[in-house]
C-alpha cells in the first residue's frame, strides 16, 4: 500500500446518451486517504494519468514553536486550521500508482498538465513545477491565493504554455507576459486562463466583493477587458457567472459556469458573450436550464470528444454533454444519483478524455474514476430497397400499398441513437422515425410503397445517427406499377437453316435477339429437341434497347436432313417462349483413312520355306467409330505383292473416337527368294514390308535337343556334342556341319537341304554328332547355327583341377576353444567326384585375424573314372593373440567355407606386465578404448619380484595391420641407472631393454622398466592386442634368465570403463597437452575431439573437456581457451536470427557457468512483454524461439523490442525488429 493512498476498484453504469460518445462502465481506479486532496487530473493516454494536489499533515503547537525558532512563518505554512500543506503528485500507469518523490514544494497544486512522456507542468500556490521526463523541478516562484479555481495552466503546444501567474513558457524559457496590474485602482488577479492559440485567449479576473468579474480577451497584441457584468436579465441582475468553477471555449463561443441564488426567479435567457449574441434565447440554454439545480447552479467541466461541452448541476448530481448540432448545440445527460462513494452524493469537479476513456476527479478530491468510451456502428443489409424485383404481373397497381421490412443493426459496443429518418419521395412512407439500438441489437424499419400515378419511381431513405463514422447513410428506394415496366423480346427470324454439313464437320449460324422493352430481358433457357444442334449460351441478360447475338452450331451424326425446334424462354410476360424451326442436312464424308502411324503388317510365319503358306496380318486405327475396311484386293507383280484395301462407313452414328481394325490376307506358297509387300488404302500407299523364302528346309525349333559327352570335361578330354531335331517334311536332311573354336566360343554350323522326292508334311528326325578339339580349362559358350540363323546357345566348363563334391567337405578345429597359449590344428576332409584326383599342396596364412587354408588339387596319371574318392589334410597355426578370428578354407584358390573362431587371452602371468595407466607402479589397466586412426597410446612396462639384475630384454608382439611401434619412443626408467638402451624393431614384434656396461649397478624387486608408444593405423577395426611373450633377465652373475610369459593388453574402438575420452594423447591424464590437441581439432569434425558426437568440435565439447580437466588449473585453462578458441569468459547473448522477422526468431545464448538464467522480451517503454526462459542452466550453448506473442498469447504490434539475458554474473541486452 502506498503512503496516504488507498487503491479501490468498483464499477457502476452510466445511462445511455442521446448524442455523441457513450460512456460505459465506470471504475474507481484510486481513492486516497484522509489528509490528501487533489485539484486536477491530467490523463496522458488510455493507461497513464498524472494528478496534482496537496498533502495536509496535522500539526501541533510544538511544531509551530519549532518553525518560529527556525525563522519560518508558522501561519503561512500551517494555516488557520493548523494544517501543514505540502505539494503532492501521483502517477498512474498500467494499473499501478506511484507517488512522485523529491517534488519541490509549491504548497497546494491547483492545476497540472502533462504532454507525452517528457513534458509537463504543475501550478501551485507558491510557483510552477516543470517535468522533464524524469524529475519535477521548480520553474517559477510567486504567491497565488485564490481558491476553488481551475484552468491556471493553458497549454498551446509543448513549446508554448501560459500560466495564471502571468508567466509564459516559450521555447524553453519562462517570461512574464504583459497584462494590466490594476484596474480602477484595484489590483488585478487572474483566476482562469485559457488560450486557443498564440493569438487568441481569455482571462477571468475575479471581484470577490461584488461577484462581478472581468473578462479579458487577447488578440495577439494586448489584453482587452470585455465587461464587468456579462450575464444579465431584464427581470433581475443578481445572476453572475462563476469562474471559480470553470469555463470553456467551444465552437467559437465562451461558455461559463452559472450561479443563481434561490430567492430569484427562473432564468429565462442568458447572454454568454457580447461577441456571441446569436446564442440569445437559443435551445442551448433551454437545455442548460433543464439541468440547473434548485439553487440555479451549473458547472462547466471540460471540452470533450467531438466538441462535447460537459457540465453538471451541482445539487442534482446530473452531468450533461452539449454538442455542436448545426446551428445550435445538442446535448446528452448522464444521471448519477447512484454514484456514491460516501453517504452523500459525490460530484465531479474535473472530467478529461483520452481516445478510449473518460477520466474524472471527485468533488472531494480523493477519488479518480475512469470509464471506457463506447462507440456505436450502424449496419445495413444493402444500399437499395426494391419494390420492382417481382414478376411483372405482380407489380402493384396505382393506389395500392406494398410493404418491405428492412433491418438495421448496431455493430458497435455503444448505444446507437437513430436521431432522424427522412425520405425525399412522396411515393414512399416509413416507420419508425427515431429509435435507440443497443449493442449487437437491431431495429426493423417498415417501408411502404404507395404509388399515386403510373410509372417507375425512386427515392432515397436517409438515416441519421450517432455513428461517429457514418452519421448519415442513404438507402435507395425503387418501385414500379403494374404495366409500367416489362421487357419485349424480338427475333427477326422464324426459321434457322444450316448449310449442308459433313457428318464429321460443323457449321454455325448467328441469331440476333433484341429487347425493345424498358427493363432487362432475362433469357432463362435455350433448348433444342435434337442434340446435333447446340448453342454457345444458355442464359443471358439483355438491357433495354440493346441486342445480343447467339451462335448456334450443327454437328450432324447421320446422312440426310435433320429438323428441330429451338425454344427460347424469357421473362417477357407476353411471349415467355419463342419457338424457331431449325433445319440442317448431314452429308457423308469421303471414305475414312486410318491413323497413319497406327498401320502395322506382320508376315506369318517368320521363317518361310517353299512348303510354307504365307499370310500377312494388317492392323491399324480409324479415328471414327463406324469406319472400317470394306474391300481387300491382292495381286502379285514378280517379287512384289500389292495389297489394296478400301475403307468405308458402316452402320451407326459417326462418332469421333478411336476404332481399331485388323485384316488377315492369305498370300499362298512362294519359291525361294526375297519378296516385297506394299499396302495401299484407298489407293494411297501406307507401308512396305518384306519376307524371304528360304531354299533350305527349316527345322522345328521346339524339337531341338543338345547334349555333351563326357558331362565332366577336363583338358585331357575330346569333348563331343550331340544335336537332334525334327524336320516338318520327310524329304529334308542335314547336308553339312562344321565346328569352329574362337577363344572361349565354339560355333557349330548346320546346313540343311531338300532330297529329291515327293514333298509331304511327314515329320522326320535328324541327328548330328561333332567332336571338339582339345580345349584348355575354362568356361565356353557353344553357339549352334542352322542355315545361318542361331538355333540354340549352350555353355560348358573344362576343368583343370579334379572336381570335389563340395557337400562332402568337413572342417575340424582343435582345440575347439583355443587361447593365446594354444597351437591350433585344423583338419579338412572330403570326396573327389572322379577316381584320379589328388591333393598336391596345402597353403596356410595368418593375417588380419584370418587363418587361411588353401587346398591345391591335381590329376593323377590314371584314366578318369566317375567315382567317389576320399581325401584329407591337416594344417597347424602357432599361438595367436586374443580376438575374434575366422578359419577360411579355399580349394584351388576359391573360398568354400568360413568358420568363426574366438581366441581368448589368459590372465597375465610372469614377472613382466603392460599397463596403460602411467602412474607409478602397475595399476593393472589392461584395456583402453576410444581408438581411432592416428591416435597414440603410451604403455608402461612393469616388473614384479625381479631377481638382482643389471640388464633385461622383452619382446612385445602386435598386429602390424592395426598398430605400429613409434620408432624411438621407448624410454627406460631409472630402475637400473645408466642402462644402455637396446631396441630391435621387426614387422610385428618390437624388442626392448638394455644392459649396464661394467659392474656395480643393479636392482631387484618391483618397479617400472620404461614406456613406449604405439600409433593406431587406418586398418584398425574393433580391437587389437599387445603381447609380451618372452622376457630375459641378465643376472649379476652373468647368467641370462629366460622366461616365457603371456602378458596381454587390449586397445579397443569402443569406450572402456575407467577411460578418459578427453585423454587425447592416451597417457592416462587429461592435461594441457590434451588441450593443444583439442585446440588443433576445434571447428573440425574430428571424431576424437567430438565428445558429444554432434558432428562438430565446438564449445559444447570444450565444456565436456573442461569438466574432465579438473579444477586445479581451471583458470589457466580458461585463459588458454579464450586465446586459442575465442571462448567468451562470461555468458553472452548472441544476435537473434532472422532479424528483422515476421513470424518467429531464434535467440542463441551462451552460458559459461552453472547459473539460474532468465531470458525476457521488453518493449521500448520498459514494459515486460514475455518471459521466455526462467530456469537453472549448466554451462553450454542454448537457444530459444520467440513467436512474436506476448504473455497473453496475442501477437504484438510491429516495432523494436529488447531481448534481455540475465545470469548470476551477467546482464546483456540486444535489439530486434518485429514486422507483421
Structure description:
- With about 1200 residues, this protein is mostly beta strands.
- About 5% of the residues lie in helices and about 50% in strands.
- It contains six helices and 91 strands.
- Strands 75, 76, 77, 78, 79, 80, 81, 82, 83 and 84 form a ten-stranded mixed β-sheet that branches. Strands 1, 2, 3, 30, 31 and 32 form a six-stranded antiparallel β-sheet that branches. Strands 43, 44, 46, 48, 50 and 51 form a six-stranded mixed β-sheet that branches.
- A hairpin with a 2-residue loop joins strand 28 and strand 29 (about 330-335).
- It is flat and about 160 Å long.
- It starts with a strand and ends with a strand.
Write the topology of this structure.
Blueprint: E1 5-6, E2 11-13, E3 22-32, E4 36-45, E5 48-58, H1 61-69, H2 74-78, E6 83-93, E7 96-99, E8 109-115, E9 119-124, E10 127-131, E11 136-141, E12 153-157, E13 160-163, E14 167-170, E15 173-176, E16 182-183, E17 186-187, E18 192-197, E19 200-205, E20 214-218, E21 223-225, E22 240-241, E23 247-250, E24 253-256, E25 258-259, H3 283-290, E26 299-303, E27 309-313, E28 318-325, E29 328-335, E30 348-354, E31 357-362, E32 367-374, E33 378-379, E34 384-386, E35 402-410, E36 416-423, E37 428-431, E38 435-437, E39 442-449, E40 456-465, E41 472-480, E42 489-490, E43 495-497, E44 501-502, E45 507-515, E46 521-528, E47 533-535, E48 540-542, E49 546-554, E50 560-570, E51 577-587, E52 600-604, E53 608-609, E54 614-624, E55 627-637, E56 640-649, E57 656-668, E58 673-681, E59 684-694, E60 700-709, E61 713-714, E62 720-727, E63 732-742, E64 745-754, E65 764-771, E66 778-786, E67 789-799, E68 804-814, E69 824-832, E70 837-847, E71 850-859, E72 869-877, E73 883-891, E74 894-903, E75 912-915, E76 927-928, E77 936-957, ...
Parallel strand pairs: 34-41, 43-51, 44-51, 53-59, 56-58, 61-67, 64-66, 71-73, 76-84
Antiparallel strand pairs: 1-3, 2-3, 3-32, 4-5, 5-6, 6-7, 8-9, 9-10, 10-11, 12-13, 13-14, 14-15, 16-17, 18-19, 19-20, 20-21, 22-25, 23-24, 26-27, 27-28, 28-29, 30-31, 31-32, 33-35, 35-39, 36-38, 36-40, 37-39, 40-41, 42-45, 45-49, 46-48, 46-50, 47-49, 50-51, 52-54, 54-57, 55-56, 58-59, 60-62, ...
Amino acid at each position: 500500500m502506498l503512503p496516504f493512498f488507498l487503491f479501490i476498484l468498483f464499477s457502476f453504469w452510466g445511462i445511455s446518451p442521446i448524442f455523441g460518445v457513450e460512456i460505459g462502465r465506470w471504475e474507481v481506479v484510486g481513492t486516497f486517504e484522509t489528509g490528501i486532496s487533489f485539484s486536477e487530473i491530467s490523463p496522458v493516454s488510455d493507461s497513464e494519468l498524472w494528478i496534482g494536489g496537496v498533502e495536509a499533515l496535522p500539526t501541533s503547537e510544538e511544531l509551530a514553536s519549532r518553525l518560529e525558532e527556525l525563522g519560518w512563518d508558522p501561519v503561512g505554512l500551517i494555516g488557520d486550521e493548523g494544517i501543514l500543506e505540502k505539494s503532492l503528485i501521483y502517477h498512474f500507469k498500467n494499473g499501478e500508482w506511484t507517488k512522485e518523490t523529491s517534488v519541490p514544494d509549491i504548497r497546494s497544486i491547483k492545476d497540472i498538465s502533462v504532454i507525452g512522456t517528457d513534458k509537463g507542468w504543475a501550478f501551485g500556490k507558491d510557483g510552477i513545477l516543470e517535468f522533464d521526463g524524469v524529475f519535477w523541478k521548480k520553474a517559477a516562484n510567486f504567491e497565488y491565493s485564490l481558491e476553488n479555481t481551475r484552468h491556471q495552466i493553458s497549454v498551446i503546444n509543448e513549446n508554448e504554455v501560459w500560466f495564471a501567474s502571468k508567466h509564459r513558457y516559450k521555447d524553453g524559457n519562462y517570461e512574464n507576459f504583459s497584462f494590466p496590474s490594476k484596474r480602477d485602482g484595484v489590483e488585478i488577479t487572474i483566476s482562469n486562463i485559457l488560450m486557443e492559440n498564440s493569438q487568441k485567449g481569455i482571462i477571468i479576473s475575479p471581484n470577490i466583493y461584488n461577484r462581478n468579474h472581468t473578462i479579458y480577451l487577447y488578440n495577439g497584441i494586448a489584453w482587452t477587458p470585455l465587461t464587468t457584468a456579462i450575464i444579465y436579465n431584464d427581470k433581475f441582475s443578481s445572476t453572475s457567472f462563476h469562474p471559480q468553477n470553470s469555463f470553456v471555449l467551444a465552437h467559437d463561443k465562451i461558455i461559463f459556469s452559472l450561479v443563481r441564488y434561490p430567492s430569484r426567479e427562473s432564468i429565462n435567457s442568458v447572454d454568454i458573450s457580447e461577441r456571441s449574441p446569436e446564442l440569445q434565447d437559443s435551445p442551448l440554454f433551454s437545455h442548460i436550464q433543464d439541468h440547473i439545480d434548485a439553487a440555479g447552479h451549473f458547472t462547466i467541466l471540460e471540452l470533450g470528444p467531438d466538441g462535447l461541452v460537459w457540465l453538471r448541476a451541482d445539487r442534482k448530481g446530473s452531468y450533461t454533454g452539449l454538442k455542436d448540432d448545426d446551428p445550435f448545440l445538442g446535448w446528452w445527460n448522464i444521471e448519477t444519483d447512484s454514484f456514491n462513494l460516501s453517504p452523500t452524493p459525490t460530484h465531479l469537479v474535473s472530467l478529461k478524455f483520452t481516445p478510449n476513456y473518460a477520466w474524472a476527479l471527485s468533488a472531494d478530491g480523493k477519488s479518480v474514476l475512469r470509464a471506457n468510451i463506447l462507440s456505436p456502428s450502424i449496419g445495413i443489409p444493402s444500399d437499395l430497397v426494391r419494390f420492382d424485383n417481382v414478376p411483372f404481373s405482380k407489380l402493384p397497381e396505382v393506389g395500392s400499398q406494398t410493404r418491405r421490412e428492412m433491418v438495421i443493426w448496431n455493430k458497435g459496443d455503444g448505444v446507437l441513437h437513430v436521431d432522424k429518418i427522412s425520405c425525399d419521395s412522396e411515393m414512399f412512407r416509413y416507420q419508425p422515425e427515431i429509435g435507440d439500438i443497443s449493442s449487437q441489437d437491431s431495429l426493423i424499419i417498415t417501408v411502404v410503397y404507395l404509388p399515386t400515378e403510373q410509372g417507375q419511381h425512386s427515392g432515397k431513405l436517409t438515416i441519421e445517427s450517432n455513428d461517429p463514422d457514418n452519421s448519415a447513410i442513404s438507402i435507395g428506394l425503387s418501385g414500379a406499377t403494374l404495366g409500367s415496366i416489362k421487357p419485349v423480346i424480338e427475333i427477326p427470324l422464324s426459321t434457322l437453316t444450316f448449310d449442308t454439313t459433313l457428318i464429321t464437320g460443323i457449321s454455325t449460324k448467328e441469331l440476333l435477339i433484341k429487347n425493345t422493352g424498358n427493363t432487362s430481358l432475362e433469357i432463362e433457357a435455350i433448348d433444342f429437341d435434337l442434340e446435333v444442334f447446340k448453342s454457345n449460351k444458355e442464359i443471358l441478360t439483355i438491357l433495354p434497347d440493346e441486342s445480343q447475338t447467339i451462335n448456334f452450331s450443327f454437328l450432324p451424326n447421320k446422312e440426310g436432313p435433320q429438323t428441330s425446334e429451338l425454344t427460347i424462354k424469357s421473362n417477357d410476360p407476353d411471349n415467355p417462349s419463342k419457338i424457331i424451326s431449325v433445319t440442317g442436312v448431314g452429308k457423308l464424308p469421303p471414305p475414312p483413312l486410318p491413323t497413319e502411324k497406327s498401320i502395322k503388317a506382320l508376315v506369318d510365319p517368320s521363317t518361310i520355306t517353299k512348303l510354307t503358306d504365307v499370310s500377312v496380318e494388317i492392323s491399324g486405327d480409324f479415328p471414327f467409330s463406324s469406319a472400317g475396311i470394306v474391300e481387300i484386293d491382292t495381286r502379285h507383280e514378280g517379287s512384289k505383292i500389292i495389297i489394296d484395301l478400301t475403307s468405308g462407313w458402316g452402320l451407326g452414328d459417326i462418332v469421333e473416337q478411336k476404332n481399331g481394325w485388323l485384316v488377315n490376307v492369305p498370300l499362298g506358297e512362294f519359291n525361294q527368294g526375297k519378296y516385297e509387300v506394299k499396302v495401299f488404302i484407298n489407293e494411297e500407299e501406307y507401308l512396305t514390308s518384306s519376307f524371304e523364302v528360304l531354299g533350305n528346309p527349316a527345322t522345328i525349333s521346339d524339337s531341338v535337343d543338345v547334349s555333351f559327352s563326357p558331362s565332366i570335361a577336363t583338358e585331357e578330354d575330346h569333348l563331343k556334342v550331340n544335336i537332334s531335331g525334327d524336320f516338318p517334311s520327310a524329304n529334308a536332311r542335314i547336308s553339312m556341319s562344321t565346328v569352329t573354336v574362337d577363344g572361349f566360343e565354339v560355333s557349330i554350323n548346320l546346313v540343311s537341304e531338300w532330297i529329291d522326292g515327293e514333298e509331304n508334311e511327314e515329320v522326320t528326325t535328324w541327328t548330328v554328332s561333332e567332336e571338339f578339339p582339345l580345349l584348355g580349362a575354362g568356361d565356353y559358350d557353344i553357339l549352334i547355327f542352322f542355315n545361318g540363323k542361331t538355333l540354340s546357345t549352350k555353355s560348358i566348363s573344362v576343368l583343370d583341377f579334379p572336381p570335389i563334391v563340395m557337400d562332402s567337405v568337413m572342417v575340424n578345429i582343435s582345440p575347439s576353444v583355443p587361447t593365446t597359449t594354444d597351437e591350433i590344428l585344423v583338419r579338412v576332409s572330403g570326396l573327389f567326384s572322379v577316381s584320379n584326383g589328388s591333393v598336391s599342396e596345402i597353403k596356410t596364412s595368418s593375417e588380419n585375424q584370418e587363418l587361411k587354408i588353401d587346398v591345391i588339387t591335381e590329376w593323377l596319371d590314371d584314366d578318369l573314372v566317375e567315382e567317389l574318392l576320399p581325401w584329407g589334410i591337416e594344417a597347424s597355426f602357432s599361438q595367436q593373440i586374443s580376438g575374434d578370428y575366422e578359419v577360411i578354407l579355399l580349394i584351388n584358390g576359391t573360398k568354400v567355407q568360413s568358420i568363426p573362431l574366438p581366441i581368448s587371452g589368459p590372465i597375465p602371468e610372469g614377472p613382466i606386465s603392460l599397463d596403460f595407466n602411467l602412474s607409478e607402479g602397475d595399476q593393472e589397466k589392461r584395456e583402453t578404448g576410444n581408438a581411432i586412426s592416428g591416435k597414440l597410446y603410451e604403455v608402461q612396462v612393469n616388473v614384479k619380484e625381479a631377481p638382482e639384475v643389471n640388464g633385461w630384454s622383452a619382446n612385445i608382439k602386435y598386429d602390424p595391420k592395426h598398430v605400429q611401434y613409434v620408432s624411438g619412443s621407448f624410454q627406460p626408467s631409472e630402475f637400473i641407472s645408466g642402462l644402455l638402451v637396446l631396441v630391435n624393431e621387426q614387422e610385428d614384434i618390437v624388442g626392448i631393454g638394455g644392459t649396464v656396461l661394467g659392474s656395480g649397478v643393479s636392482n631387484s624387486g618391483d618397479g617400472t622398466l620404461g614406456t613406449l608408444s604405439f600409433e593406431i593405423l587406418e586398418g584398425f577395426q574393433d580391437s587389437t592386442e599387445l603381447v609380451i611373450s618372452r622376457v630375459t633377465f641378465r643376472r649379476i652373475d652373468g647368467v641370462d634368465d629366460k622366461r616365457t610369459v603371456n602378458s596381454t593388453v587390449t586397445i579397443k574402438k569402443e569406450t572402456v570403463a575407467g577411460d578418459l575420452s578427453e585423454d587425447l594423447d592416451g597417457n592416462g591424464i587429461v592435461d594441457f597437452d590434451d588441450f593443444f590437441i583439442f585446440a588443433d581439432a576445434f571447428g573440425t569434425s574430428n571424431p576424437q575431439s567430438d565428445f558429444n558426437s554432434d558432428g562438430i568440435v565446438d564449445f559444447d565439447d570444450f565444456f565436456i573437456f573442461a569438466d574432465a580437466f579438473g579444477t586445479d588449473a581451471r583458470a589457466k585453462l580458461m585463459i588458454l581457451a579464450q586465446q586459442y578458441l575465442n571462448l567468451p569468459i562470461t555468458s553472452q547473448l548472441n544476435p537473434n536470427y532472422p532479424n528483422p522477422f515476421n513470424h518467429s526468431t531464434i535467440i542463441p545464448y551462451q552460458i559459461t557457468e552453472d547459473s539460474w538464467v532468465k531470458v525476457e522480451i521488453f518493449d521500448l517503454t520498459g514494459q515486460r512483454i514475455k518471459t521466455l526462459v526462467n530456469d537453472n542452466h549448466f554451462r553450454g550453448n542454448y537457444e530459444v524461439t520467440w513467436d512474436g506473442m506476448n504473455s497473453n498469447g496475442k501477437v504484438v504490434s510491429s516495432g523494436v523490442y529488447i531481448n534481455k539475458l540475465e545470469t548470476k554474473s551477467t546482464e546483456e541486452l540486444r535489439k530486434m525488429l518485429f514486422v507483421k
